[in-house]
Write the structure tokens for this entry.
Amino acid sequence: MINPIAIENVRPRTPDGFPAKAVTGQVVTVSADIFRDGHDLLAAQLAWRPKGSKMWQTAPMSELPNHRWEAAFSAADVGLHEFVVRAWTDAYATWRKGALLKHQAGQDVAVEMEEGALLVEAASARAKAKDRAPFEQAAEMLRNKYLPVENRLEAAEVPEVLAVLRATPAKKDLSISSSMPLWVDRPRALFSSWYELFPRSNGGFAGTTKRLAALAEMGFDVIYLPPIHPIGVTDRKGKNNTTTPGPDDVGSPWAIGSAAGGHTAIDPGLGTFEEFDALVEEAHALGMEISLDYALQCSPDHPWVTDHPEWFHRRPDGSIKFAENPPKKYQDIYPINFWPDKDEDRDALWRECRDVLEFWIERGVKFFRVDNPHTKPLAFWAWVIRKIQSKHPDVLFLAEAFTHPKMMARLAEVGFSQSYTYFTWRTAKQELAEYALEVAQGPASDYMRPNFWPNT
Amino acid sequence: MINPIAIENVRPRTPDGFPAKAVTGQVVTVSADIFRDGHDLLAAQLAWRPKGSKMWQTAPMSELPNHRWEAAFSAADVGLHEFVVRAWTDAYATWRKGALLKHQAGQDVAVEMEEGALLVEAASARAKAKDRAPFEQAAEMLRNKYLPVENRLEAAEVPEVLAVLRATPAKKDLSISSSMPLWVDRPRALFSSWYELFPRSNGGFAGTTKRLAALAEMGFDVIYLPPIHPIGVTDRKGKNNTTTPGPDDVGSPWAIGSAAGGHTAIDPGLGTFEEFDALVEEAHALGMEISLDYALQCSPDHPWVTDHPEWFHRRPDGSIKFAENPPKKYQDIYPINFWPDKDEDRDALWRECRDVLEFWIERGVKFFRVDNPHTKPLAFWAWVIRKIQSKHPDVLFLAEAFTHPKMMARLAEVGFSQSYTYFTWRTAKQELAEYALEVAQGPASDYMRPNFWPNT
């Protein structure tokens, strides 16, 4: 059985049932096509709650042109929410409109007045006993054939009577949309100003800490650090991408891992954990935060390479496959094989990747800039973001994805809080206007938050 | 766990999971957005079958620009079908592209050739023992380091080897869309030429039978008769919608039912069941068919009014509510209350309405022109059309719906085979072009079949 009333095309939503997105305090406009057979007038209501709460909050929906209805709400807390759209036939409004039209056309409306009185009495039965006086009075007036019809119709237009008349659907008529999931983030998921710096160029963590006040002064609120982990030595890259580094070449920070550790270690050249903690603390004190790079790849010297060779692609000659985009080679980086042959190996790998996030969340990092997420499985992102956010709903993920539009939208759908955009490729007025409309109002605007910063 | 490969936006489909539509022999183009992480090449396949069949038929999908893929099929039989889109990583094509690029860039590809040989050997294991010779030969050539690389790459390009290499997904990588339902009708659901006539003006059924050959000659294939049932006498309408009919006024054929019977009876003035059967038979003999009007409403004299007063709206003065659109009154017609208070009354009513269709289907009528479906519940149409078509998949329903576009699309979605359109309201070139594009390619074109005939 489908709903007696059609409730279609509810927004916000994602194409495949993942949560749409909002931030705390944001006005979320919910809209839907609502209509039924015949000419009766309808009423509709938006209901929402944090997922798992027993109490719904509600707001009446307003009718727009072309059978579209809408209402707005805002969520106070981060985390998963749900909303539904409810619709029913407004028996009172339908009755009143018909009775008035007939009276104005000079028709006898004695039976209509009795029908109205019965509607009011039925509503009275749903009010508390102590509140029933205005209902009884209204029903009596509607039946008073010695008064002009206009006055009798006026008599039911009492706010406390109307409130009950209009808000109470007949059970057999009440129609309810599917439960629509909405993930609510903290406000920086919607808007934040990022400053990227290499701690190595700023006197390590200690020197970087001293720069924070000036960055806060400029209005930045997120300080993003490229990978801060130990850098591999095997096949380290030198100047201009050569494979012959000099003794002072530090290599690419994205070639993560050495004998000093992997994704949960700090490059000794940048400072200590105590200095890192002090950096995070100072950022918080200034109303800012530190974002780390989450780059899931390894140098040949990463501990995972020896401890878990099954997490990498092995070639017929026994070597591990390094990153390449033929004919380009990145010998200093091993991509991870997210789909090892054995399911238990995959489970262990994915959990380890999750634990890297947990490690830094524990140290106060709540915003991750994710390196090239479009080169790792969508299934992994759907899993790891849900795992982390269900425990830490204030953690945010920025997708460093410069790839095709459908992939960018899909990464946002499966959970990324923010995404890069093609903004920097648009230069003409019309291109900018079209693109701004697309990101502000297009279908993906329900869940994709384009970040307009021009840095990669 | 979501699919390793994203398969999105599959068409044809309806917004809420009802079947999309096709007719037998029609070329149905299935398309989807298909992509995965990284740069590996993909393969995709369309699979379809009549619902309930154990065997899938398949066709390879081709890649279009912007990650869209498509393939086409056509169904031989009417009834419910299902299709899925399958996608996997094309390991062979990915390998070959990379090996060639590296070789062309002057890199050593000895390990790549061994990888290729292993891919071919893995494919060989999936071929029948007697078919393995070309695989062994290809693997041997790939490993033959005395030959130029181009020749070795060429050696695997043998049709029977390629067919196995390309068609066999790795199990952990195979991604499958949801099952998509498709309802397949006979061809007249897509295109038919209708001729409407009143048997009363043509000498009843016997006279109408004589006109059929001339109508067939003109190219018509559906002869539509307004209601042929007994007409009520209570509050019968006279000329020009007056309520004072003369003795020769027959009333509106849509005021269905009298002492002579209701929706399963024939107005005695039109002929006998035998004459009706002869009319249907002659139409079939001429390659045409008879369509009846399915108008779910009653005159005050319809047998249902006395047998089932609970199927109508009763007013406080004890009268049954007649049809009205205030201040307009249609005293000769009682609308049906499709939602009686008791569920068992509703079940009995809906079944009776279904049985009316069964009655005429039994007499050879397979096409119903449904009167004002937008004034009866969508839930009823979803139920009754599914009930009828699951037993008689060749029965078709035309929605006589001149109402707002969302309702027209929704009626098509819940099951109507054909619908009216706004064609006759479009007159300018641009209006016509836009509308033709909308009905031919817009989202509703997957399930709504607009009938361009200008008659209501």
Observations:
- Residues 230 and 260 of chain B are 6 Å apart (CA to CA).
- Chain B touches chain A through 55 residues (CB under 8 Å).
- Residues 343-362 of chain B form the longest helix (20 residues).
